[in-house]
Amino acid sequence: MRPVRLQANALYAAWLIALASTLGALFVGEVMGRAPCVLCWYQRIAMFPLALILGVACYRSETSIRHYVLPIAVAGCLIALWHSLLFAGVIAESVQPCTRNGPSCAGEEQTLFGFLPLPFLSLAAFAAIILSLTVPFRKDHT
């Protein structure tokens, strides 16, 4: 497979992941009525523009866009990692951004299908976007 085609496929994969994540977050928040906590909002701030920017890049076949979207994806991934560590209990509960009176990521209400924690899904989405924008873009030494 030619490197240019591989890069275009990776760009489409990143866009589809960002689009699915954006639509999923909107579904969980608007249809299922689950209010996002502060860290969920920060992750949305990083993910929502990725869906738009990567969509335009796919339309225009601009593989060089990765230089602009990777910093956003890395920032979102770091927030999602922090959030996942909080959810898993690795980081002390005293620094948890969820409040007792507001939205909380603790408990079964913040899982999808009863077993997929939303912070872990966000972390996986950001990591997959980062991988799809970096791994296939390496120079071929053949």
TrEMBL record:
The chain crosses the membrane at residues 12-29, 41-59, 68-92, 112-137. It is found in: Membrane. One of its GO terms (biological process) is protein folding. Its main location: membrane. Pfam families: DsbB. One of its GO terms (molecular function) is protein-disulfide reductase activity. Keywords: Chaperone, Disulfide bond, Electron transport, Membrane, Oxidoreductase, Redox-active center, Transmembrane, Transmembrane helix, Transport. SUPFAM superfamilies: DsbB-like (SSF158442). It is a multi-pass membrane protein. GO terms for cellular component: membrane. It comes from the Bacteria. InterPro entries: DiS_bond_form_DsbB/BdbC (IPR003752), Disulphide_bond_form_BdbC (IPR012187), DsbB-like_sf (IPR023380). Belongs to the DsbB family. BdbC subfamily. PANTHER family: DISULFIDE FORMATION PROTEIN-RELATED (PTHR43469), SPBETA PROPHAGE-DERIVED DISULFIDE BOND FORMATION PROTEIN B (PTHR43469:SF1). This is Disulfide bond formation protein DsbB. It comes from Enhydrobacter aerosaccus.
